[in-house]
Amino acid sequence: MQSPSPSQALDRRTFLKAAAAPTLALPLGTTLSTTLAQAQSQDSEAPDAPPGIVDTNLHVGDWPFRHLKYSAPRALADKLKQHRIVEGWAGSFEALFHKNLSDVNARLAVACRGIRDLSLRPVGALCPVWPGWEEDLRRCHEIHKMPAIRLYPAYHQYRLDRPEIRELFAAVQARGMFVQVAIDLEDPRVHHPALQLEPVDVRPLTEHLQAVPEIRVQLLNAQMALSQPGIASLLATRRVTFDLANLEGAGAIGRLLAGNHWSIKTQLHLSHLMFGSHAPFFPLEAALLRLFESPLDRSQLVALMQGNARHWLPPGPVPG
Amino acid sequence: MTDWQTFSLNPADYGLPSRDALRQLRIWDGHYHGFLGSDPLAQHAETMHYVERMGIERVFALEIGGSLEKPFAPTGIEAQQREILERDGHRVSGLVCVDPGEPEQSVEKMVNWIRQGPCVGIKYAGHGRHEFRVSHPKNDAIIRLAADLQAIIYVHTWLKVGGSPRTPGGSNLSGEATPMDLVTLAKRFPDVPFICGHTGGDWELGIRAIQSQPNIFLEFAGSDPHSGAVDLAVRELGAERIVWGGHGPSRSYATELSKVLDADLTHEQRLQILGGNLRRIAGPIFKKKGYKV
Question: Which contacts (CB < 8 Å, 24+ apart) does range B101-105 have?
Answer without folding.
Answer: B101/B129, B101/B130, B101/B131, B101/B132, B101/B136, B101/B138, B101/B175, B102/B71, B102/B72, B103/B138, B103/B139, B103/B140, B103/B141, B103/B142, B104/B141, B105/B71, B105/B72
